[in-house]
Design a protein that fits this description.
Layout lengths: L15 H9 L3 H21 L3 H4 L5 H15 L13 H8 L1
Length: 97
């Protein structure tokens, strides 16, 4: 598989801290892996949330989770993480949700 511009071979990189480090270094593949690593947990949380029942007429849980990640990546919030916060990415994602 060929990699795109700014994308490195992530191989066995799976920890949030490693992926954040690579993302902050400009690796676009790490951005995709961060999304994939946290997407299902955020979807589960959203589907359990009481107000999701009312929102289903207007949007899907998938769309809302996608929007959370768009906002996270576009906002620059990840650039402001310090080493202690990196393990709490799911908490930050939940707050944005």
């Amino acid at each position: 598989m060929s990699m795109g511009h700014g994308e490195e071979d992530l191989g066995q990189v799976t920890s949030t801290e490693e992926l954040l480090g690579r993302y902050l270094a400009g690796d676009v593949g790490a951005e995709r892996r961060l999304f994939e690593a946290h997407r299902n947990a955020l979807l589960d949380e959203l589907c359990r949330h009481p107000w999701m029942r009312g929102l289903r007429r207007h949007t899907t849980a998938d769309d809302l989770v996608d929007e959370v990640f768009v906002r996270v990546f576009a906002s620059g919030i990840l650039q402001r993480f310090d080493a202690g916060d990196r393990g709490n990415l799911r908490r930050v994602l939940s707050r944005i949700l």
